């Protein structure tokens, strides 16, 4: 009995121990189960030049965060932001960060690894440079205020860096020429990235040599210029000058200032602006009357000389044009009454109507103006004193603007006489005091155009007898080669575009807008005399190159020597002046 009892009690003990063990095992497995993992911090970075700030939203369940930069010892924080400083601009840094729970109710988050390159920082504001105040030995470079800048670093050429607290720097004691000036905003605050240099080419004032005196100055680069006030190429000084001013410009902002300093006319041409302007000198009585005036021509494309079969060298574009391109209104250029040195603007569009008026003009402040009109003939002296006045008796066709006709105004009073049966003209003339072309150029004699037709005169209906070139590449010269003007062969394979810029019609004292793009008239320095049937008319006619579009003429029409009224204002295509 005792053995049986012991055996049963032993079995019960084993069973109890086994049950207890199972319970303990079950409890142990429940205690070591992995807790839920925290989410990794999602960071935002604020970059600076030598530091950065990291921020993140609080992670649910976390009561702290562990981080390490570039493998350094791990750090802890209960905040949701941390700052890192003392770093190098341009360096790449690796940040590891995770969320933790000290109670261990949640498992640590995965590491969030972020690569941070310090090539972004607080940036200083941008600046733009301007050049002004040029003299023969100095200029001023100025700039706008840059956000965040405490001062500005300035360098002239390869010189030393100079710190400037203001918004401009004057450079003095310079030799005449061009200089590179670099400027950048700067700050002592290391949170700002180093700004990039901004450069400008600044030139001292260019003094145009007296030998280059003319009624038109061809300016190919922006900058400040000065010239002695001569009457064209005559060598005669304009007397009694008290000041100078801008009369008009056809592009606002082209001319930034005009003055009279040290007995010279001064003016400045803006960077990247192209067009035309007229400046004038005035006397002590005031600026209402011009003592003399000068055309300032700033083309966008380079002016070149093209050899002609007639032996002349002709400009590749119209006087006052900014481009020689076909089908471009900027190729039209300016328009001149025959014998006058001062221009008028042409059509503002490739084609026009009777309502089309000339391209507008502007004053130094960009305010729009217009040309005046005198409806009676006037003297040469009047035209000089009133360079922006178109002169013509209204409703009188084929007339002269000048009250006392002067055949020699452009230097070739007998230029239309030629050898019988040939295209050789006796007189080529010479550049006159009233010639509107720049130095080295002049209004062409009619002989320059003589080979544009086989007869040296008018040709109708036969392109083969003209110098019109095949420009559309179809192997045939015909009406399809017209493109707001003709390409004319000047010699060999050399062609040049002669745009149909229309003209100011003297009888109406206004732009002949309805033929813009359809009519081209190019003055010569030559005049008609007894070669015309009407002696009265001959006193008012000058020789010119002219053509009409096929649409306007109904056929091919090109004339190498036709007549036009001196009161009209037409195109000028200068030729190289021959000594």
Name the descriptors.
Immunoglobulin-like, 579 residues, mainly beta, disordered N terminus, four-stranded antiparallel β-sheet, 8% helix
Describe the structure.
It is a single chain. The protein is mainly beta. The chain folds into four domains: 43-117, Sandwich (Immunoglobulin-like), CATH 2.60.40; 129-203, Immunoglobulin-like (Sandwich); 206-298, Sandwich (Immunoglobulin-like); 305-356 and 407-576, no CATH class. The chain is 8% helix and 33% strand. The chain has four helices and 40 strands. The strands form 14 sheets. It has a four-stranded antiparallel β-sheet with strand order 4-3-6-7, with no helix packed on it. Strand 1 and strand 2 (52-56) form a beta hairpin. The longest helix has 30 residues, at 2-31. The chain is elongated and about 120 Å long. The model is unreliable at 1-29 and 530-537 (pLDDT under 50).
Determine the oligomeric state from the structure.
single chain
Strand content: 25-35%
Structural class: mainly beta
Q: Spatial order of the strands in the main sheet?
A: 4-3-6-7
Cα(first) to Cα(last) distance is 155 Å
Q: In one word, what is the shape?
A: elongated
Cα radius of gyration in angstroms: 41 Å
Q: Please, how many domains?
A: 4
The count of strands amounts to 40
The main β sheet shows up as: 4 strands, antiparallel
Poorly predicted regions: 1-29, 530-537
How many distinct helices? 4
Layout: helices, strands, pairs:
Elements lengths: L1 H30 L11 E5 L4 E5 L7 E6 L5 E3 L3 E4 L7 E9 L11 E6 L11 E4 L6 E5 L7 E6 L5 E3 L3 E4 L6 E9 L11 E6 L2 E2 L8 E3 L4 E5 L15 E7 L5 E7 L2 E6 L5 E8 L9 E7 L6 E3 L5 E3 L20 E2 L23 E2 L5 E2 L2 E3 L5 H6 L3 E3 L49 E2 L15 E3 L24 E7 L2 E6 L4 E2 L4 E2 L7 E9 L7 H4 L2 E8 L1 H4 L3 E9 L3 E2 L4 E2 L3
Parallel strand pairs: 15-17, 16-22, 28-29
Antiparallel strand pairs: 1-2, 2-5, 3-4, 3-6, 6-7, 8-9, 9-12, 10-11, 10-13, 13-14, 17-20, 18-21, 19-20, 21-22, 23-24, 25-39, 26-27, 30-40, 31-38, 32-33, 34-35, 36-37, 37-38
